[in-house]
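pinning this so it doesn't scroll away 📌
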Amino acid sequence: NVYSQPDTEVPDEPFANDFTNESSPKIEDDDTRSPTSPQPRRRIVSTSSKEQCYDTADADTPKPIKLDSAAQAYIDKQRKLQEDLTDEMVGLARQLKETSQTISQSVQSTEKILDSTEEAIEQSLASTGHTTTRATKVYSQSSKTSCFQWLLIFAMTCVFIMVVLLIRVT
């Protein structure tokens, strides 16, 4: 591919020294990957073993340099990749917000259900307590009634025996 873009002037930055013959970077790339895939992107691996030091005075004074079409294409590709990643992050943030709102609504509905269940249980306990009190009253009245009934039966038996004895004696 031959690019018909004119050479662009950019200020001198620390990466400008990376394009010399002595320490040119090697770019590892697998062209089969799509730019939006979750796999790792391109890496720049320097072939020189020594560290490059930059003077802060040199970095403060911009010196315009001309980039060839390959460097400009590389920068454009990296910008496009950054834009794609930014768009992907915005989409993920939107999904996260929607998911958190859905979970919040679910928690609120569950809380309402738990509140209504708690009220139903309290009403059930109150009703059970009232029923237990009534059952206790009925039982105590029935035991009193049964004692009274037993006393009446005993008294009637005694009266019957006395009547039988009175009839035999006379």
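📌 and the second one:
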Amino acid sequence: MHEHVRQEFQSLLDEYSWIAKKMLAEDLEFCPYGAAISISGDLVSVSAVGIDDVTRPSEMRQWLIDHMREQAQAGQYRATAVFYDSKTVSHDDNSSSDAIAIELDHVDGYPVLIFEPYQVKDGHLDYANLGMCEGQTSIFQRTQQ
């Protein structure tokens, strides 16, 4: 991964990942939301809240992906992040856990999925170590090789 891609992904994480943790601490859930870096380098918040006919979290996540893809195709974004509540499975014992999932993508490639497992213990949130793998969602069109 090129250094500029890593730095832009880190900027999105630094500026926006706290929102999911804040909502989880207050409500034990959060609605999917997004963020992007515009072609000029500005940070942009993206939300599906209030969009007609988009009420379920899965619909919100898909709306965010579709909207960001449209903006990327129009040359408006160079990096994107979609944050949503998910499940992850431990490779050690096959147990499942809730997790904050973050799908990152960049105009120069390198889609990444980051997940941060969490659980509620005695009314408090405990977070586990971050996991990362190659992302599956492509916001930016890429030519097939």
